[in-house]
Write a structure and sequence with these properties.
Strand content of chain B: under 5%
Strand order of the largest sheet of chain A: 1-2
Structural class of chain A: mainly alpha
Structural class of chain B: mainly alpha
Oligomer: heterodimer
Order of helices and strands of chain A: HHHEEHHHHHHHHHHHHHHHHHH
Largest sheet of chain A: 2 strands, antiparallel
Distance between the termini of chain A: 38 Å
Radius of gyration of chain B: 27 Å
Radius of gyration of chain A: 22 Å
Helix content of chain A: over 70%
Strand content of chain A: under 5%
Shape of chain A: globular
Order of helices and strands of chain B: HHH
Number of helices of chain B: 3
Distance between the termini of chain B: 70 Å
Number of helices of chain A: 21
Number of strands of chain B: 0
Number of strands of chain A: 2
Helix content of chain B: 55-70%
Largest sheet of chain B: none
Chain lengths: 508, 125
């Protein structure tokens, strides 16, 4: 190693992360100094405000007029960090999604009659969420297996804590422990895979791995490494058959934490996954265009993707718990995003990014509605949603837009996300290719998915809360922060559906 | 294409070895116990300590779970030493930037300690 490490370059590359660190320290410090003398409400407000301002400054540090396109990326700090439109877009995306989930905190405080409030320590929650966001942001720019692993673990460890933040709830503790155990296992698999890749190529920088593998070609050991990485990543992304933690975590975690797990973490994870597979392991991808081509990761990704779509959509049909239903739908969406990873070869990362971003926005909307309902009555079973349109027309409208977007109804963003992904997969070689068959399966499964999404909407918009059901009829007063977050996510879901080029244009 | 030359055969072999190795060890342990270690429990053998004072009561007692806080706080110092040692070993050849980075690192760790102190986690309850 040379001793002339350019620290200025390191600081330059990590400006948003440094902004997040400072904001995190500020949130903790302010709460330590003044928090005890403030009311719970003001304390929460200040913590959320500091979090939002921090994320805004991180966005400001990210904005750059001259972003190099994918393929002509700028490399910083001896190739440890990469900067291109994908990294740029993912950073902005995770900051935005994180800010939206922060705003949900105010809405997810149950009335004191129901339970003790579970956000007793708002500053710590905000600090941990900023740490998680830093992990996502690192994943977005990492060009190096070690940095990526650090980003993954920073994000995961923070998310475990956030899932268990409601200390008074058994379900929350269960969610946290399950998530932790599965996540730790996934990290071990992924690290084992990374170490095998390093052992074979002697480098951890992605383009250099690609160069070394182009010389070596596929080997049995490399296949083991690929399978290990895919298993580890499958766990993190909740793709079948590694999805077991997802329903319990979505059910038990506080709604803002579940929203972050479902949105920003997916976006950052899939973006890094696509980068790893294409810029690091691209030469050993195998063949997605013809049947019976050379072996590689594409076949494994196709199998995981198909399993996720089948299991997610079919298991969701049987759910009576709204949050578990959303979890199974998340598994199905993870399958579609894996299809998007394959389709990166045809159309670039644009469709995948657009899909993951719009999916995240819509999911935040759904979890925000659940959080707001929980202010008056528990919101777990689908029947708890009954009569929502009478209790709060606003919440019912947001739920309508976001759920239809998840189902993929035009003109909402979810439809165009699916459309671009399937089109990109079909561009590979039409229907006569594994990727084409997978796209066909995805279209068929979207039709299955429509049923359970409409079950949610039927409960919320058609069914009346009768005396026999558990649903409350009390009017719901939605706090300002939640109104902003929900209105933003619903508006974005519609606007990005009408003008998809705002996002896709980044990748042109 | 024979089975041995199939590209995924190595993964099957890998999984088989990964499963066989721990199972084989367990089997050897079982055989050892069966052949050489027939169970002969006695009060002395079941005692909590092998030697030393006679133990009073059971080994299954409750102890304060608060210990875990100290274990976590100990990590602050543990990690600090772990990273300061290589830094100190290479101190002569490092630049000002390295010093700054190390100070930032220590500052972040110290912030954790200050936070725990301020929250009253250092007081034994």
């Amino acid at each position: 190693m040379n001793a002339t490490i350019n620290y200025a370059e390191l600081v330059y590359a990590l400006r948003p992360e440094i902004a997040l660190t400072l904001g995190l320290l500020l949130a903790l410090g302010y709460d330590m100094a003044f928090g005890r003398r403030m009311s719970d409400c003001a304390r929460r407000g200040v913590a959320v405000l500091i979090g939002i301002v921090t994320l805004a400054s991180a966005v400001f540090q990210t904005l750059h007029t001259n972003v190099p396109p994918v393929g002509h990326a700028a490399y910083w700090f001896h190739g440890a960090f990469v900067y291109d439109t994908l990294a740029h877009g993912v950073r902005l995306g995770v900051f935005g999604l994180s800010a939206l989930t922060l705003l949900l905190i105010a809405g997810s405080i149950p009335h004191s009659a129901l339970r003790t409030p579970h956000f007793k320590h708002p500053a710590e929650y905000v600090a941990i969420q900023l740490l998680a966001t830093m992990g996502f942001s690192l994943m977005a720019v990492s060009n190096n297996l070690l940095i990526a692993f650090l980003g993954f673990e920073l994000a995961s460890l923070s998310l475990y804590v956030m899932a268990g933040f409601d200390k008074t709830s058994r379900a929350s503790a269960e969610a946290s422990l399950k998530y932790f155990l599965f996540g730790g296992m996934a990290a071990a698999f992924m690290l084992f895979g990374f170490s095998l890749i390093y052992g074979m190529t002697g480098t951890i920088v992605l383009p250099e791995i690609a160069r070394a593998l182009a010389v070596q070609g596929p080997s049995p050991l490399l296949l083991v490494a690929l399978v290990m990485v895919l298993v580890g990543f499958g766990y993190k992304a909740a793709a079948a058959p590694f999805h077991q933690w997802a329903p319990d975590v979505y059910q038990g975690a506080p709604a803002p934490a579940a929203a972050l797990i479902a949105s920003a973490s997916k976006l950052a994870g899939f973006a890094f996954f696509a980068r790893l597979l294409f810029s690091g392991l691209g030469t050993v991808s195998g063949d997605a265009i013809n049947f019976g081509g050379p072996a590689g990761w594409i076949m494994a990704v196709i199998i995981i993707s198909a399993a996720s779509m089948l299991l997610g959509n079919i298991a969701a049909l049987a759910q009576t718990n709204a949050r578990r239903l959303i979890a199974y739908s998340a598994i199905a969406h993870a399958g579609i995003m894996l299809l998007g990873v394959i389709a990166v070869r045809a159309e670039g990362a644009g469709p995948l990014f657009y899909y993951a971003l719009t999916y995240g926005i819509a999911t935040i909307g759904v979890f925000g509605v659940f959080a707001a309902i929980e202010r008056t009555a528990p919101c777990q079973r689908i029947s708890d949603l009954a009569g929502l349109w009478k209790r709060s027309p606003f919440l019912a409208l947001v739920l309508f837009v976001c759920v239809l977007s998840l189902a993929g109804i035009p003109p909402l963003a979810g439809f165009f996300g699916k459309f671009y992904l399937f089109a990109a997969a079909l561009y590979l070689n039409g229907l006569m290719s594994p990727a084409g068959w997978l796209a066909f399966l995805a279209i068929a499964m979207s039709a299955v998915g429509l049923y359970y999404y409409l079950v949610i909407l039927k409960a919320a918009l058609v069914t009346n809360a009768t005396a026999g059901t558990s649903a409350s009829t009390e009017k719901i007063r939605v706090p300002l922060g939640t109104v902003i977050a929900l209105a933003t996510s619903a508006a974005l879901t519609i606007a990005l559906g009408i003008w998809p080029d705002v996002v896709l244009g980044l990748f042109k | 294409m024979t089975i041995a030359s199939h590209p995924y055969a190595f993964i099957a072999l890998f999984v088989a070895v990964a499963a066989a190795f721990p199972l084989g060890l367990l089997l050897v342990c079982r055989l050892w116990v069966w052949a050489f270690q027939p169970p002969k429990p006695s009060p002395v053998k079941n005692g909590i300590y092998e030697c030393g004072l006679e133990a009073k009561g059971d080994s299954w007692i409750q102890f304060k779970a608060h210990y875990y806080l100290y274990a976590i706080l100990f990590l602050i110092f543990d990690v600090e030493v772990l990273f300061l040692l290589p830094f100190a070993a290479a101190f002569n050849v490092l630049s000002w930037g390295a010093l700054f980075v190390m100070l930032a690192f220590i500052f972040l760790l110290a912030e954790g300690l200050v936070w725990a102190w301020n929250r009253g986690h250092l007081e034994w309850k």
